[in-house]
Amino acid sequence: MHPPRGVASLGWVRAVRSERGSGTVLGLALFCMILLCASVSIPSALSLETRAEVRALADSVALSGARVLAGLASGDPCDAARRVAEANGVTLSGCRVGEADLRVTVTRQVAGVTVRSVAFAGFLTDDTRD
Question: Where are the domains positioned within the chain?
């Protein structure tokens, strides 16, 4: 298509109508969107995985203390829980010993965020079996 008479000297009209380079701009926009989605979803997925791992480790720590409390191992229940926590890369930030149960709180630092989980473990006594 030829421009109307008198407009031929206006080269910018053809430049505006040209689609040259638009694929580069669209490709760059698509790349930026993918990068944005990845920067949001990857930390979220890692956070969920870390929470599940810390929750499982809290259960393990509580069970190790409950074994001592039940007389299946010797020592202090909280010391046993602390040893298992340290061996698994979490910090025992709380330990409360009850009559037949143990409550532990473990934490782990991940990318500047503290992930915390609480677990209970215990054993049945003659009073609780009825």
Answer: 11-122
